[in-house]
Amino acid sequence: MTTAEALELRHFGHDDLPLIRQTLIDMHAEVYAAAMIRDEFYRKFPWFVDHWGGRPDFSCVIAYDGDEPVGFAYGAPAVEGREWWRRHLVAAPEKERTFHFSQFLVRERWRKTGASSRLHRALMDPRGEDLAVLLVDATHPKVQALYESWGYHQIGRDQPFADSPVFAVMLAELPLP
């Protein structure tokens, strides 16, 4: 296995979705195989890929170990007036522009190698927005702690779909520390 530093990080945008769509779906199916059996929400992932990838400013980073995909991170800037996360704050930040960090995963073999951090930084460092927001399953405190170590903090909880888990809503100012 290649070290995290040696992984090749490839950047993709909206126009690349037809090239990367199946790679994203296949990695998700591998990582969430058990969840997909018991929970319909996880089987809806292709819809989320198309939803986010359909945005003109969609941004995706996929890490590769040779030709083997290791993990990915993607998202898109918020649509003005649709920054739903602001309702979780008594006093919303004055900063306006938000990046929605939508999906992030690393395959099992590459966890705890630094691959997560490299993928996250590769997606977030070039961002021009003021803020980043994400959702993390509230039953995964270790994942939430990882995001906190990267500069995010919980601002609330939300269940955006009737069949989805309850998520911790996490916000960070950009650029990240």
UniProtKB/TrEMBL annotation:
GO molecular function: acyltransferase activity, transferring groups other than amino-acyl groups
Key words of the record: Transferase
The UniProt record lists the keyword Transferase: yes
Name recorded for this polypeptide: Acetyltransferase (GNAT) domain-containing protein
Chain ranges of the N-acetyltransferase domain: 7-175
UniProt cross-references to InterPro entries, sorted A to Z: Acyl_CoA_acyltransferase (IPR016181), GNAT_dom (IPR000182)
Annotated SUPFAM superfamilies: Acyl-CoA N-acyltransferases (Nat) (SSF55729)
Superkingdom of source: Bacteria
